Amino acid sequence: xxxxxxxxxxxxxxxxxxxxxxxxxxxxxxxxxxxxxxxxxxxxxxxxxxxxxxxxxxxxxxxxxxxxxxxxxxxxxxxxxxxxxxxxxxxxxxxxxxxxxxxxxxxxxxxxxxxxxxxxxxxxxxxxxxxxxxxxxxxxxxxxxxxxxxxxxxxxxxxxxxxxxxxxxxxxxxxxxxxxxxxxxxxxxxxxxxxxxxxxxxxxxxxxxxxxxxxxxxxxxxx
Length: 223
Fold this sequence. Notes:
Shape: globular
């Protein structure tokens, strides 16, 4: 939980005060919770100035953003490589990387100030040796293929498929964080099955036994 003096320093008398560390965070991150709290501090400090996250999101910083992202780590396996497309402020890649130190993550972000913040502030401050940052658009990062490719709040599923499949190994998976319209987005994507060699679509829930509001993920398996 943030010390009150620290909160006063960055958000004096604000109705958008940062959400305190919730009890669920300990269950999600375990002994790596201090790293997640440090990440939250950096988001509060730099978020508005660098256009990472707006002040209205601070009261739900943990529940809507950090924990919502971290639990997707349940869906990856030790030793896998994961690309986070359009990482922005680091969602979902940074919380997943904190939770899963035995998985290698590449954060792909085209905007210079965001990529620089991730590479020069977040990764070294948190000591995330399992994370590298690539300043590029998805279509510029095709020199490497990954076991898993993920994205959150980037685009509708048909557009995501076109961006993410070329980055994914044969037989790999796409994990797209979605909301209540996940089934509709899958229907809109059915015409892409043959072209992009999609084996299966599945709607899965991450964090169901940990969070009051678990994360809905569209998992796409490739041939």
